[in-house]
Amino acid sequence: MTMSAPSNAFGGQASPWVSRIAMAAVHFFILVLFLQNVAADTWSSVIGLLFAHLYSVVALTYWSKIERTAAGDTVIVTVTLEYVLMAIIFWERASAWPWSTMFGLGMVQVCAFAAVKYWKDLRRAPASAWFGLIVILVYVMVAATAPIIAPFGETEIVGSEYDVWSNKHLLGTDNLGRDMFTRLIYGGRNTVGIAFTTTLLAFIIGGFAGILAAAMRGWVDQVLGRLVDILMAIPSFIFALLILTIVGTSIPSLIMVIAVLDATRVFRLARAVSMNVVVLDYVEAASLRGEGLWWLIRSEILPNILPPLVAEFGLRFCFVFLFLSGLSFLGLGIQPPTADWGSMVRDNATLITYGDITPLLPAAAIAILTIGVNFVVDWFLHKASGLKD
Amino acid sequence: MTDAMTGDPKGEIILDMHGLRIEGRSDEIWHEIVHGVNVTLRRGEVLGLIGESGAGKSTIGLAAMGFARDGCRISGGSIMFDGVDLVKASDDSLRQLRGSRIAYVAQSAAAAFNPAHKLIDQYCEAPVQHGIMPRAEAESDAIDLYHRLRLPDPESIGFRYPHQVSGGQLQRAMTAMAMACRPDLIVFDEPTTALDVTTQIEVLSAIRDIVRQFNTAAIYITHDLAVVSQMADRIMVLRHGNLIEEGETRGMIEDPQKEYTRDLLAVRTFRKEISDEPNAEVPLLSVRGVNAAYGKVPVLFDVSMDIHRKRTVAVVGESGSGKSTMARVITGLLPPSQGEVFYDGQALAPGHRRRSKDDKRRLQMIYQMPDTAINPRQRVRSIIGRPLEFYLGMRGEERDARIVQLLEMIELDPDEFIDRFPGELSGGQKQRICIARALAAEPELIICDEVTSALDQLVAEEILKLLQRLQDELGLAYMFITHDLATVRAVADEIVVMLQGKVVEHGPKAEVLRPPHHEYTALLLSSVPEMDPDWLDNLLDERSGQTA
Amino acid sequence: MSMIGKLVAQRLALGLLTLFVVSLIIFLCVELLPGNLAQEILGQAATPETVAAFNRELGLDLPPHERYIAWLLDMTKGDFGRSLASQREISELLGMRVQNTFFLATLAAVIAIPLAVTLGILAALYRDSWYDRIVNVVTLTSISFPEFFVAYILIIVLAVNLGIFPSISNISEDLGFWEKVYRSALPALTLTLVVVAHMMRMTRAAIINLLASPYIEMARLKGLKPGRIILKHALPNALAPIINVVVLNLAYLVVGVVLVEVVFVYPGLGQLFVDSVSKRDIPVVQACSLIFAMTYVLLNLLADVLSIMSNPRLLHPR
Known about the structure:
The complex is a heterotrimer of chains A (389), B (548) and C (318). Chain A is mostly helical and 389 residues long. In chain A, 74% of the residues lie in helices and 0% in strands. In chain A, helix 8 (180-216) runs antiparallel to helix 9, helix 9 crosses helix 11 (251-278) and helix 12 packs across helix 13 (293-329). Chains in contact: A-B, A-C, B-C.
């Protein structure tokens, strides 16, 4: 075994590391070649781009024959590099290629890498998990490409009020004469995006605090624990409404308030699972060795609590998503004219009493995504518990 | 109390398992774990099933009741119990046999008793539900059995809840419960494994007497050959779901036929060579008058001991004696409330956070459970490499070369093992990695906290030999914490005996093991089962002679 | 028994402390309002005189701790102050609505608890069977539905298409009990559907956890009948987790009520709360939050105390 570089943070040896970069570079080269030749037509360029991504990811992962675990690292390298270059090349066309679109494409790429990496597990996944994965993928793609696939503008008034379903307006129009189909697409982008950001924030706050409390114990644990107890003593829906009454409903305040309230739940879980790890001998051994707090958290605790945290992320996302839709439905969440699934139900609820199900479509869209995520998490948890035995 | 004579003619065959195959499921796939084993048992006979973990002995024991745990299934063969094939029997007829004609005694009585009901209620359940006797009769019968099993307060102990009774007593109460219907066969599944040696004696003798009194057939499952030779008429040695050897107890102990059985018997014969007396230099580690407490509960009382260079000091005691607390005080995890720890003549800071890196480096620790002692998300390379980086500042090729060296030292092939995760290692291999991690720091003293008690006996012996070789090569000093006197005999230069947080005896091995002993040392030493089928009888005779 | 007494007393004291802290938070939330409440309510055009008068009227010119104590004392006397929007006594607004809301929640609980616990135990007993798998998928699906989605589906099916129940719950004081039940049927059903799935999954998990314990295996090896194993060996130990599940979901009911009330225009506390939030009628919001939070705290307290009291190890100390 010959090597020159020390083992890196990813725990592997140096040689795959080199091939990772090489792989990323090749992938990237194909992408640039492709993009230089795209037609002006946005549709075909998007589809072509997706294919380029999928093809290169799958082909290269096999071609380079690097170990499967390296695929995850490759994602990070490739995506980062790609964004840097995209930013340079498309700076002028930034409005045509919004950041969210790039983010969405990145997500698709991550999905492809994950599919390659976990293909063995995926093949044995039950139908419900497959359903969930496909739902999530479709939602992400729709959200990412909303400005491209939506026939009209988000807040554009294009017809009379409550038009019926037609060729021009696939799902009719809403209470102000805006295209329902367009609003549905943009609503997904807004609601899912905000819920995702909120959950992410909640995990950053709650997860970090929870691990810290478990690792440091003593007064840090006490103070954080009591603080969370207090925040959790009031039902979060009520608490959120109370605070939103006072600070007002803007999207940033919505995100902050829900994230902080939700972080308490994440804190509880992160602290509990970290506690289970912290009492194990290998953490004791590391702290006896004299390792600092940062090492303990990053190398000893975090890798071992990742599976439950990932599952919890899915569940918390569902919770936040339903929570947010609930608020919007009450008219206290995302404010008009921004399209949002919860408020779309509310605005068009009158139609329901006439037996028209159009207003239920956004609600169904919420339900389907939540079901999908729940199915995936359920499968994941089942697998994680099965591996333990 | 009249014991039935050993070796009296046994009755007809009560249990006959033929070509038994059992499968277990992992990763959604069925794997065979018992490969066609034949077991026969006559009325009144005690059969010992012995083997290391994964031998399938518990699985076979449960199969004798027609039972397979979740994730297991009986896939082939027949189990004839008194003329009925349990493999083909209906659930209902199986249910009627269980508890009434075949009974079970579980390893952990504390977990196997329902916390919500009194002992006697759980006792009466089987006889009443199987319609064998009415409740009042069952109750008086229970008290009678509690007498016979020598439980304290037999009249009232049944009216307590499980958590109000000690472990050894619970195990006897469970034996009584198994006896309730006077079954033809009892399966004992490692009934004394979780107990301390001194408690084990009481439970063993109680179980043996009662089985003889009622002429019950029994399957006694254990990993301890010395224990089984006290209990069983006949022994079956199992390995990986196959029968290795079968024979009369005495014959097998005296003249084993198979290599594997010989290895198992030879396990306790390893002895280290007697090393020189310590020279009068300053001891490497010196504990002086240490008192320690967990919160307000005092655990250690005025403990003092010395460890000299290149010597092995064994700290022995039963659970709760404070021996692991000693290790925590020395490593600085639990600062003592009084007293000091000196290293090479220098006082160590009480808490480990205030000790220098070099103090930490020189004092390393190996843990009881290799499964939890290494991070499952790190490769062997990182596990061993980290102390090299951290203490010695090694990087790159230098570090990797040293890792290879260390792996060779612990007798693992570097090319094969360096990039494995702990999940891809066996228990013994994991413990070797722990040793390598300790060695990487180039320590002078290693604290070994029950390092072999989670391992199978053969593997444990290999580890002891390895540690011994390393001591000879590298001149290490060991502090060996253990409850197992066989280990003490094997590796110690000096022995510290602890009881309830105090040192009761302290001295060179030969001195401590030679009479006259301290009273507790004597009890501890005499309680360790020996590979002699008469040992328990002789011991009980001796002890009753002393008290009479 | 003294051990239990001590633990229960501890929990009660802790509960009381929590109530106190909750009231403090609700009070402070308004206190931390950026800028001035009067300015906020009266708008930028308000003259300094009107602002001062407004402050005097609400007692806002006093120091915070004095106001807090006065507010708390008023609350305990049932005086919640006046609504900013309608100038009516808040206690007058609350009276009937609190009753209605508790009526709705109780109705839902009465249907949901026995149903969920029974179905949950069955799913645990027949785990990995088809029944269990179907139950798993169905409950996963229904916990994924937003409450208003369930509500509107029920409206479309039961009210608009079949015309069995009214889609709007007109409840007034003079209605008879059964008439009230009839008119609250749809909101109660919605809440039931939402809560049953949660409760059932949690019950199932608690029982399965229990069935894996060695004393259940022991009971099976004693040849006991399956029914007896469940009733005699599993249930006494399952009591604590099940009680926890039930009470947690009751606490959820009280909150879930808010959305459902809005959909069905049910004259309860939730509706008042939502209206006041959108009007930024802060005294009413405070009063409603306090009532919701108190119920929540008390229910959690109840769960704590009940699970202590059903623990055999604590009931029969050494």
